[in-house]
Each structure stands twice: as C-alpha cells, then as structure tokens.
Design goal:
single chain, alpha/beta, Rossmann fold, 2 domains, four-stranded antiparallel sheet, 20% strand
C-alpha cells in the first residue's frame, strides 16, 4: 500500500487552513496545520517526513519569507508553495529569492491549488529518484561561464570568487540552459522540462526564476550577456556572453 504524502499547512487564517486541509485530505493526503512560523520550523526540524509545505506569506511574528529562508538555510529541501494576497512582481521575486518553489495569489481556485500540490510532489519525487541513480542527462561536473564556476556534483556555485546559494529548482533551470547552450528555448518548454508542468499552466515562475539567475550571474542584470530574452519566442543561454550590440 502506498504511503500517503504528508502536507504541512502554515496559515493563521483558521477557516482557510481548515478548508485547504479538508480538500487535501479528500484527495488522500495526510495534513497537519500550524498557525505561525516558529511552530512550522520546529515541526519540520523534528518531523522531517513532511513532503510539502503550503506557506502563507503574512504570518504573526515571522513572515513566510523568513520561514522559507530559514528552511533553506537549514538545508531542509522540502517543496514550498507560497500563498499570498500580494500580487506585485517584487513580492513574487522576494518569495522565489527566499527559496519558494511556486507562488499562488489569493484568492485562488481550489483546482489550481490541488494541481500545483500534485505537480510539485511529482517533480520532487523525480528529482529524488534521479539523485538516487535513475537515468537522466548528466550535466558537466564542473562548468564555467563569465565569472561563474558551477559544481553540479556538490551544488556549489561561485561568482567572482563569492559563494552563491541556489535552490534545487534554480540549479535545475541553470542545468537545462547549459545543456541547451546556444539554442532558443521556448518558455513552454522550460515550464515542461524544468517545472514539469503542462504548457497551459498559468504562471510567471519561469520569468521570475530567469530574473533571479540574471541577478546572480550577470554583471549588469538589466543588460544580460548570458541569459537572453528572445522576444515572443523564449530564452537563450550564451556561455561566452554577448556584447552591448548583441553580438557573441
């Protein structure tokens, strides 16, 4: 018998937490709820068998940003779906910078929430299996471009001799760009191959994560040399970089 996946809901609005819990349990998940960040951190440290966290942004005492950042600092690699009524781009970017895997704005459709939960769990399961030796396309063990030095074996990244910390999803996106260096990659392809979500999924995650890579690796993120936008088509990674005129 397959063991049920365990979901932790961190939400201080009791009625919302109860509603999400009820629907997840109806889908076969084992669900725990807490109403504040410190309780969530304590639970995740003492009960590591949590498979996914649904994390509200506005929590008493400690924001969802802080909770997520502390999880990543402690190397707790659990998928995090962040919930928030905030819709500004900078709020989403801050959530991804803190280590969230996906960001869903309130009010949300229940079917979309359930779909994201299922897809995140599938994505992390596949990643775990690949880490245990299942076949996958291997990146070069060490890769250098611009001022960056990436070690895929140890997950260590240095940019201009400074250590940079990437989440597993950010590393997966970087790996896909490197494996397809020079090729224009449609946004839908990235959504499918990296996030393992249907191309029809409505999300700005791809754009947010590429903005994050530019912030980390580009000397001037506003004028990228490596992670290029090909208007109305997709993105292209150029290891050697391009100059201001767009020439390699």
């Amino acid at each position: 018998m397959t063991e049920r996946k365990r979901v932790l809901i961190v939400e201080d609005e009791h009625h919302l937490a109860v509603g999400i819990k009820y629907n997840l349990e109806a889908e076969g998940f084992a669900v725990t709820t807490v109403g504040d960040g410190p309780s969530a951190l304590q639970l995740l440290e003492t009960q590591p068998r949590i498979d996914l966290v649904i994390l509200d942004l506005m929590l008493p005492g400690m924001s969802g940003y802080a909770v997520c950042a502390k999880l990543r600092d402690k190397n707790i690699d659990v998928p995090v779906l962040m919930l928030s009524a905030r819709t500004l781009t900078e709020d989403r970017t801050r959530g991804f910078d803190a280590g969230a895997d996906q960001y869903l704005t309130k009010p949300f459709d229940l079917d979309e929430l359930l779909s994201r939960v299922r897809n995140l769990l599938v994505m992390y399961d596949r990643r775990t299996k690949r880490g245990n030796g299942s076949p996958a396309t291997s990146p070069p063990p060490n890769y250098r471009f611009g001022h960056a030095d990436v070690d895929f074996a140890s997950y260590e990244v240095r940019v201009a001799d400074k250590h940079v910390k990437l989440t597993q999803l950010e590393m997966k996106l970087l790996q896909y760009f490197i494996q397809n260096e020079g090729r224009v990659i449609p946004r839908d392809e990235l959504l499918g191959k990296v996030w393992e979500l249907p191309a029809t999924t409505s999300t700005r995650a791809v754009d947010q994560f590429i903005r994050r890579l530019r912030k980390l690796f580009e000397p001037d993120p506003s004028h990228p040399r490596h992670f290029l936008t090909i208007r109305d088509v997709g993105y292209r990674f150029v290891a050697a970089g391009v100059d201001a005129a767009g020439e390699e």
